[in-house]
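PROTEIN–LIGAND DATA SHEET

This sheet pairs a single protein chain with one bound small molecule, phosphoenolpyruvate, given as SMILES. Inputs appear in the order they were entered. The predicted three-dimensional arrangement of chain and ligand is reported afterwards as a token string under its own label.
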Amino acid sequence: MDTTIHLKRTNVLKGTATLLPASKSINNRALIINALAGSKSEIQNMSDANDVQLMLRLVNSKDETIDVEDAGTTMRFLTAYFSITNQHKVLTGTSRMKERPIGILVNALRSLGATIDYIEKDGYPPLKLSGFAGQKTDTIKIRGDVSSQFISALMMVAPILPKGLTLELEGKIGSRPYIEMTASIMKHFGVSSDFKDNKVIVAPQKYIPAPFTVESDWSGASYWFAFAALAEKAEIYLPKLYLESLQGDSVIVKIMEQLGVQASMENSLLKLTKKESVKELHWDFTHCPDLGQTVAVVCAAKGIKGYFTGLESLRIKETDRIAALQNELQKIGGNLVEVDAAHWTLIPSSSLPDKAFFNTYKDHRMAMAFAPLATLMNVEIEKPEVVRKSYPNFWNDLKEFGLV
Ligand SMILES: O=C(O)C1=C[C@@H](OP(=O)(O)O)[C@@H](O)[C@H](O)C1
Ligand SMILES: C=C(OP(=O)(O)O)C(=O)O
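PREDICTION REPORTED AS:
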């Protein structure tokens, strides 16, 4: 049955987003590393995100068929984990997961000594993993411009390889903070690695169990920045977020400073209030691709022209996010124009309609990025349940602000 959520137009926002989840990126790394360290560590503040709940259930599953649904990190990290730990599995997912590339990771794992076959289309899930025959090489060249998740996946299994692993990253490196996040979490569990320029070196080492607490999700927090940017008045509090964070998406503070949001710590909560905004925004999303939709919608609604780079990887995420943004922004009189393969111009709306219905393309970030428009107009959102991937209580948090 198709569902739709109607948001109540509300332009004064005061309250706390108490159900903001923990970071799914941090959490899924901690779960893989914990499994490699013998599953003895206590992980606190676990995320209720579906991607994390899937990882929690699947990483120690004895089942042969592993269905990761639409969780990219779960797919990529488990492919490396099951391969190198010599587990025979079939890894599958949603129809969209079957369109998201994995060939670069599969080639790397094959050259290390893993046996992996494609069940349907070459280069894409589902995969059949048939064990690990022993390490064949200690150096791999790997492209850095498709998904950093391939690199993180290999890094996490690298210390248990008898010869360790050197990754030579080729081409542009995207999502670099996620690679740094991987190195930091490995370090927390006693494994050092060296990541400089385009090389990652991991010597053979043992992970040491250690208690770990997951911080809140900055990508999820970005929607609250968007609400603050678009509201007439805002005083929004967010729990368990740290300005110094492992998450590259904490850069939302700097982006939103330009789009009219002031962020500061108050009694261990992050407080968002309003300030003046700029007339145009220049931003490179190479290292924070998950913020692209949030920022595009805010610029479109606030009449701020955007000059964007680094959006290439949006085409291979939960949906083609460039196409989805183009379709949906047109409903409010905006657009995202592809100038060339590396540059986009965000054309803002000159006047917003009174109401609009937004499609979500099975993408949690489409639903959450368009919700903040409810500060300015009547908003309906298709299939609101998509938010379960990263922020299952998003709509419940909106209730606290009178938006639902
Ligand atoms: O490693 C991670 O946790 C992630 C890396 C990014 O993907 P890419 O490396 O594919 O850009 C990001 O978009 C995704 O949501 C989470
Ligand atoms: C791209 C995302 O996730 P993943 O690649 O892990 O599916 C996301 O959460 O925006």
